[in-house]
Amino acid sequence: MKKTRAVTSIIAFLVLLFLQGTRANEGSDGSRTIIQEEEHAHEVHCSRERSRAAWKIIQEYLMPFVEREHYQIPSKCRLHPDNDIFRDQEEHKIHVDINEWQCGYCKKSFRAEKFLDQHFDSRHYNLLNINGSKCIADLCGALHCDHVMNTKSHKTKCNLAAVARNRHLCESLADSCFLIHQGPSASRLHELFLHQFCDAHTCSGKQKPFSRGGKKQTSVLYLAISILTLMLLPIFYVIVFLHQREMRMRTQKLRRVSPVGRKTKPS
């Protein structure tokens, strides 16, 4: 009887261990599935860095001309702000200081912009505009992002197929964003877009992108010279004032001394 009870206890213990191991495996498989689903849900096939470069180009080399013409870019145009998946997040970045960036949603602070980007990806993913085709980085070829980001090697041989593809994309943007039949403003902007972006898509290298210029930015040197001028201008006026006062005092002294020192001729 004792041997039978011992064998039964051992079998029961082994069965219990097997059941616990099965439940643990099921739990780990379930948690692994949830993690994989979360990682897949947060996966965005769009470069934030290149999207930022594309938007910077639009703001500096296109929008000044659009605003001058008082033209409204249609929402179907891929250059419209609503078609940038990261636009709302980018507008909620607060650059407090050189080494301080703040999240406009939750007010958390970060030492660098890249850490704020990671925060957006992990904490505010639900605020991304992911409906439809919203990756403005896909337009980088047409907008010359590599030229701005300095990522393209000058020694690389020109790829005729890539140049033709980028030029076609560029011209399609001009046609869809600036409809010529809408009036003279749209027609002028259509022509400008071709010269500003599309004409540079050649292998000759003669035509440079952004040939029409862009937004005028105040340089650091200009600011320094302006501040220095404002500081030195009062000092200059003080020096001029003191010099003129000294000259007047000398003139008055000479007038006082001249009658006394004058000798009268004998008659």
UniProtKB/TrEMBL annotation:
PROSITE patterns: ZINC_FINGER_C2H2_1. The keyword Signal applies. Residues 1-24 form the signal peptide. Coiled coil: none annotated. Keywords: Membrane, Signal, Transmembrane, Transmembrane helix. The keyword Transferase does not apply. One of its GO terms (molecular function) is transcription cis-regulatory region binding. Residues 103-124 form the C2H2-type domain. It comes from the Eukaryota. The chain crosses the membrane at residues 220-242. This is Zinc finger, C2H.
